[in-house]
Amino acid sequence: MENPSLEGQGRLVAQVIDRGLCVRCGACVGLCPYFDYFDGKVVVVDPCLAGTFRCLQLCPRAGYGATTPMRDETAGDIGAYREILVARSTDGTIRRRSQYGGVVSALLIYALEEGLITSAVLTDAGDSFAPKGRRVQGRTEVLECAGSRYSGSGSLSEMNRAIRMGHSRLGVVGVPCQMDALARMRQMRPDGNERARAVTLRVGLFCTWAIDYPRLEAYLAGQDLEGPLLKFDIPPPPSEAFRGLTAAGWRDFPLSEIRPMVQNGCFMCEDMTAEQADISVGTVEGQDGWNTVIARTDTGTQLLESAVDRGRLETGELPGENLCHLMDAARNKREKAGRAGIESLE
Fold it and tell me: What residues contact residue 260 under an 8 Å CB cut-off, 6+ apart?
């Protein structure tokens, strides 16, 4: 007879990990001591004896009934929001260190300096291994984590570690699946509300998909690169390139060779703009050095307006054409994910 105490972990392994749908968000790691994150993969360390099902409740790829965050279907293709605009940091150093306009770094530095948060969970580039989560407390550390990674990082494991150590007023930066996990955390039983109160600020990043890091690492190893890659970029359409920066300059790789490395779980994601965040940030098509910023909640709106008032950000209007393109892209992702979900059940 099957041991019911193993059903939670067993179901997560069967439904998500063994099916190749894990998106390496890290929500189960550090929450449960029997999961770990190593070099781009979530691994099972030992059978779990707990019967709380907490790992299932948080996983953005596990269908666990009432814990699935409800989406307001009347909110439109990019979710509910209070304000949408373009912005960039007024600090040249921040912009040079960042992927585009430096908005995420500028907001986090401002929030830390003003005491709105005590620390932030970001994604570090890692050492010789895959990108990973890192808890930071100041400007220098924030800038060390600046830039996009384009692969799963397991960074929510660092959030779980911080909560377990008693840290509160945390800021968390993550992609849509990670914001989904945070939304699930608020509904999790038995201690979801208590854990959710430790997170004061949720900053979401636009994301179309993420790459399986071990496969990307193996691919790059065969590309005769001149030194390690210092930065990645995927320019907006019509570009069809995945770009990597080395000491010798930028190197372009065809997206047709990169797409087969996309995590399978990403194809089931319906959210491109991190709808569950307080504030969402992405690039601006055709405007290099700027970010699209979507303030969604009171927390996100107040932070954005305060940072602008204090001269940390400069802003402008998002052109109507850009908004239409963003809506179209978000709708396309939702429709493709819906088809992928149906196919997975067949």
Answer: none
In the DSSP assignment, the letter for residue 13 is: I
N-to-C CA span, the chain: 28
How many folded domains does the chain comprise?
A: 2
Of the candidates 244, 223, 224, which has an alpha carbon nearest to the alpha carbon of residue 232? 244
The DSSP bridge partners found for residue 291 are 87, 283
What count of other Cβ atoms lies within 10 Å of the Cβ of residue 130?
Answer: 23
**pLDDT over 60 (residue 3):** no
173 and 97 in a single domain? The answer is yes
Average pLDDT score over the chain:
90
| Residues 48 and 89 both lie in one domain | no
State whether 98 and 21 are in the same domain. Answer: no
Distance between alpha carbon 52 and the CA centroid of its chain, in Å?
26
Domain shared by 53 and 133, yes or no: no
39, 93: one domain: no
Label residue 247 by pLDDT band (50, 70, 90).
confident
Determine the Cα–Cα distance for residues 230 and 328; give it in Å rounded to an integer: 32
* β-sheet bridge partners, residue 233: 243
91 and 25 in a common domain: no
CA distance 68 to 70: 6
pTM: 0.93
pLDDT tens digit string along 29-44? 999 889 999 888 999 9
Q: How far is Cα 53 from Cα 69, in angstroms, rounded to an integer?
A: 17
Number of Cβ within 10 Å of residue 127's Cβ equals: 7
What is the tens place of the pLDDT at every residue in 65-91? Answer: 545 566 676 678 999 999 999 999 999
